[in-house]
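Shipment paperwork, digital attachment
Item: protein structure file
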Amino acid sequence: MKKPIPVEKAKVVKLLPETGGSHPFGGAKHQVRPMDLSKYGYVEEEYLIAGNAKIYTWPEGAEAAWAEREGASYASRFLIRKPADSSKFSGNVFVEMFNWARGYDRAICTWGNCHEYLMREGDVWVGVSIRANVIDNLKRFDPVRYEALTYENPVPKEHRADRPQSNTYHDDYTDPDRENGLTWDMYSQVALALRDTGEGSPLCGYEVKAVIGTGATAGDLATYVAAIDPVSCRSDGGNLFDGYLIFMTGAPGNVNQYEEKLHWMDPRAKFYCKVPLIRAYTCKDMLGSGHHPDWAYMQRRNDSDEEGRYYRSYEIAGTGLMLKYTYFTEPSHEDVERCGLQIKNGRTGKAWSKEDLEIYEFPTRYALNAMHDNLKKWIRERTAPPSCEPYETKGVYPDTDLKEDQYGNVKGGVRLPYLRVPAYHFKRNATAVLMDSGTLSRLYAGHEDYVEKVKGAVKECIEERILLPEDGETIIQEAAQAQIP
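Attachment content:
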């Protein structure tokens, strides 16, 4: 493995103030369900970040990536939400790559699912714009506020014919005039900017103890962890990030605009990490169909606590894609339309309806809260997270499928009380159907019996460290209020 190379700092990290006529895209006050952060003791700021980045190459068969071009200029932006009182800060900073698949920034993994947990803990959250298509749409949203943003391709136009556009998770999001490979050093430079607590910095006066990368992206964070993290460091040789949590997707994506994303059978897709790494999968990430046709099932590897080869994998039973809970923290419809985009439910071209949002879904956030918490303890206390069984499968690739129990729920995986004390059939599209009254009556002698069994399952999950006590109490309250059986 090549020796890590220090990443240079960003040239500009500048506050973008909110005014009466200009606000951050995706700001908490401008979500689908607006949020007053001051009620939680939090404040929000937005920063422009600009500098020089390397463009990396990672050819097939190469153990490590390396820079094929240096000095390419970029400018992006990041949102930061932090305790207003620095003495309330936990020391933990989560830096989330925004998901870009709909053409605008969405915080799915950490803010979208875990914002209540973060603010309860006093953690800092940062959301980073990482894709050229999003940057172009931000400039449509507010041409003045985001005028400086750029992901311009540094390769001269006359040479771009030799660099055809590669396949991506969404082929309509490539542009020969843009270079998404600028993301990697930009993301590193965000981490450096957050570690700088001097005068004028985003976390001036805050004692930063851990910087953690997260995201639910089209292989982007997986690309960073597998290809960029091993060859990058701070000027003193220290790690840029202290740990990572990757939610959804399988193999790493594209390291630049013209090289192919990794095939799911590529041995490089079975990467470990020099710092603690947690991967969290949904039922729909496993097989070669749907929005994430990555065959994450083929990339399974053993959990590891070996120095320099850290890894935990959690396959969450009951969950799926298109989580409706995260919808409420997305940018408002009005702001998305100012980008020139249509509101989409997945890729169907319509907004979530009232009926859609009233359908019960598996509360994936409780599993993710525990994973974020375990990751922090792994980093700061060296307390290794638990290991969990994978989903049970049947058949041989490419005819593999997930086994289901008599209630239609996936077998194996991380099993929260909802699976241990079944009352719903959880579909792989993240929706749920209440079991019929006859089945429920056979399972439970009465409502009190159901609630007692839920309490027992909550206790088990807390002891196994796959559920936090606060979320366990919420699950018990939910069970007590449910008309089950």
